[in-house]
């Protein structure tokens, strides 16, 4: 029996997927520029300012340089896995955005179009599953390079991800106890409801744990042990060149962007604007305002990622493991128990 397909809905989803992918790549591209400017401001220097007005064409110059570089594959590497690693890392980074509600519905040509690719009822579990796949991109790249430093860096990255995903998951359990749902769209709507606050008010400790774990998941300083240049030369992508190296570098910035969106969605109301009654606006205007509000929150988080990178030195590896297992995991368990007791005594 043939299934009937709503081709208009299918086309809408394809267009939304294309917009989200290109927007994520574009934001990641200019995040590299923003990071260099933030680092320059913190170090009292101008930063990139030659390519185009105010240096705005610098990301395109960097991308063109990577494309034009010679493609080198080591003779002793596993060539298939060597090529697969960076593609897997980039694909996993982009797939995470599939369940994120970017704003309220828009009304076009008599149709109601949700600005969310897939509103699945296990949205948070989906994000965890896809984020876990990103570790394979690091592991495959490090192992396939047949380089001892790359392999050591990949092992560091994998053990770091396993350690901090546990604390991140425990912090989210407390959030799920208060919201009662895994749907990201429903979590945002609960925070927008009259008489409700953003989840950061109910779960400040859970957010702090999630934020620290997000740094570790994105391999950002002070948790960039998989790319510790002073110890491991260049990290797990040491043998990579041209756009394969570019995919690894850009996937880190895509992960940082998506992590910021997830934190804004879970703890800061997503596309909600404080003290604004969206029902007074037309649906399309409310959707545009929601997108702008979400992006403003994301920009603040991205700036915080950069600020931390250029002000705090990286941990030693033993400090990294001790923080994850001896501090964050017990704190996340404590937060979960306190949340459960609070709900038991006072209700949601």
Tell me what you see in this structure.
The chain has 348 residues and is mostly helical. It has one domain. Helices cover 67% and strands 2% of the residues. It has 12 helices and 2 strands, in the order αααββααααααααα. It has helices spanning 7-42, 58-68, 79-95, 123-144, 148-179, 184-192, 199-202, 204-217, 229-232, 242-267, 283-309, 317-346, and strands at residues 106-108, 111-113. A two-stranded antiparallel ribbon has the order 1-2. A hairpin with a 2-residue loop joins strand 1 (106-108) and strand 2 (111-113). The longest helix has 36 residues, at 7-42. The termini are far apart.
Summarize the structure in short.
A hairpin with a 2-residue loop joins strand 1 and strand 2. Helices cover 67% and strands 2% of the residues. It is found in: Cell membrane; Membrane.
Descriptors:
348 residues; mainly alpha; 12 helices; 2 strands
What's the helix count? 12
Low-confidence stretches: none
Strand order of the largest sheet: 1-2
Quick one: biggest sheet? 2 strands, antiparallel
Total count of domains:
1
Content of β-strand: under 5%
Shape: globular
- What's the mean pLDDT score? 88
InterPro entries: NADH_UbQ_OxRdtase_su1/FPO, NADH_UbQ_OxRdtase_su1_CS
GO molecular function: NADH dehydrogenase activity; oxidoreductase activity, acting on NAD(P)H, quinone or similar compound as acceptor; quinone binding
EC number: 7.1.1.-
Membrane topology: Multi-pass membrane protein
Topology, element by element:
Layout: H1 7-42, H2 58-68, H3 79-95, E1 106-108, E2 111-113, H4 123-144, H5 148-179, H6 184-192, H7 199-202, H8 204-217, H9 229-232, H10 242-267, H11 283-309, H12 317-346
